[in-house]
Amino acid sequence: MLTTYLKKSTHAAPLAIFRIATGCMLFLSIVRFWANGWIEELYIKPKYYFGFYGLEFIKPLGNYTYILFMVCAVAAILVAIGLWYKQAIIVLFLSFTYIELMDKSTYLNHYYFTSLVLFLLIFLPAHRYFSVDTYRNKSLNFSYIPKWNIDIIKFFVLMLYFYAGLAKLNSDWLLNALPLKIWLPARNDMPLIGWLFNYKITAYVFVWIGCIYDLTIGFLLWNNKTRLFAYLSVVIFHFVTAILFPIGMFPYIMIVTALIFFSAQFHQKIINLFNQWLKLPAGFIQNNQTFIYKPFALKFRIVILSVFFLVQMILPFRYMFYPQELFWTEEGYRFSWRVMLMEKAGYAQFTVKSSNGKAIVVNNLDFLTLLQEKMMSTQPDFILQYAHLLRDYYHSHGYPNPQVFADVYVSLNGRIGQTFINPKIDLAQEKESFKHKNWILPLNYEIKGF
User: Fold this and answer.
1) Which residues pair with 411 in a beta bridge?
2) Who contacts 424 (Cβ-Cβ below 8 Å, separation ≥6)?
């Protein structure tokens, strides 16, 4: 059965359009990032950076960071037009992922999603149709590709939505309408509909629609009969979230990405319009050649992509190996498609003491930016990294054998704040690992569900 499925073919137009859209969206995102001065603000000005565990060597490159963004932008254009695609997609994946990993203060789910999509595209023949590569070398031009090449992108998008829906099956979201019950009233100044956000029932409507949408939209998009309705839902849903919440390019990325579910005929019409606009010969997009992988290349891709999806299916559930509330400790929270599920506010004050009796209460803004301090004050791995930063800094500035103690108070989803970190623990002596951080004090409330 698997062998039969792997032999099925479909028109390559959807994958070509997906390649073009992905490259263009990434290019626009980089231009937007640059134009807003965020490269300088996020990757040049800070004195210190919070690396991901095990990847701390990935850091901004000083002023050369601009070159990194430039390389990423050029690679995005090359991918979009399909020029030197095999090399360009690898460069785009590596440069974009490097940018994503430079400082986890800037972590966003859609950055992670984009990196994974780029990884998938490395193994797909997205340049075999309607690309500069095929225009220059007609032997590369194929109108048909294996059907699974498109299905794995569809499945990945479906999985993203479904896991986001599963994450919403918790008591705070469904029963307490949190955190939307906190966020929506802040938008009551919106024209026409702002007054609706003053009512609690509005938040409940939003959270239930959001949960049902995430759990079902992937399946509805895949079904021919419900696809048009589903896509209109995607447009409306993401357009509304773009208006209500400052989440950057994510809504537009998902609107464009969902086009992959439409039929090959739909994408062929778009290709035909492009072809006419560019005044290219009709034969460029009209041939009956089918791309077939060589046996080793096919087996290699099956192994790589099987491992990829296995990891993606398991990774979001790693939080089950940790003893405390996920939203509180955030151990296993990242890379699990948990989108806009909580509102956390924190206050963190650090005291450094040395063996010679010297002590100092740290001003966090002497070391961190406002964004970094905000992220640090509610996330344990940030707090530990910052404590080690302070330990090393003060050790080199006349504080022998420094101890670092943290007084941290955090409020989760509007609840009364409580002590987050055991203030008696010397964080300078604690080591980072994937193990549970037993110096995190337990949440005084229970949140049921995923």
Assistant:
1) 345
2) 405
Token pair 């930063």 in the structure block, residue: 389
Residue reference for tokens 């022998």: 400
Query: Which of 135-144, 246-255, 281-290, 375-384 has the highest mean predicted lDDT (pLDDT)?
Result: 375-384
pTM of the model as a whole: 0.93
Residues 162, 254: Cα–Cα separation, whole Å: 14
Place of tokens 């778009």: 270
Distance of CA 359 to the CA centre of its chain: 40
3-state secondary structure of 303: helix
Interatomic CA distance for residues 399 and 306, integer angstroms: 52
Q: Compute the distance between CA of residue 320 and CA of residue 302 in angstroms, rounded to an integer.
A: 29
Per-residue pLDDT, 175: 93
Burial call 146-161: b when 16+ CB within 10 Å, e when fewer? bbbbbbbbbebbbbbb
Q: Look-up: residue for tokens 């590709």?
A: 145
Provide the 8-state DSSP code for 18.
Answer: H
Distance of alpha carbon 141 from alpha carbon 143, whole angstroms:
7
Domain ranges of the chain: 12-139+148-286, 326-429
H/E segment holding residue 407: strand 403-412
CA angle 112, 113, 116 (to 5 degrees): 90
Residue 409 has, within 13 A of its CA and on its CB side, a CA count of 7
Q: Are 348 and 408 in contact (CB under 8 A)?
A: yes
Amino acid symbol at 212:
I
Phi and psi dihedrals of 361, rounded to 5? -90, 125
Q: What would you report as the CA-atom Rg of the chain, rounded to the nearest whole angstrom?
A: 25
109 and 116 Cβ atoms separated by less than 8 Å: no
The amino acid that residue 253 corresponds to is I
Strand, helix or coil for residue 421:
strand
Note the residue count of the chain.
Answer: 450
Among residues 144, 441, 88, which one has the least CA distance to residue 285? Answer: 144
159 Cβ contact partners less than 8 Å away, ≥ 6 residues apart: 218, 309, 312, 313
Stated as kind and residue range, the H or E segment containing 352 is strand 344-353
CB 242 within 8 A of CB 252: yes
**How confident is the model over 296-310, as a mean pLDDT?**
95
Name the strands in the sheet holding 403-412, side by side, starting at the edge strand that comes first in the sequence.
Answer: 359-361, 344-353, 403-412, 418-419
Where are the extended beta strands (E) located within 140-240? 144-146
For helices 109-122 and 13-35, give the axis angle rounded to 10 degrees: 140
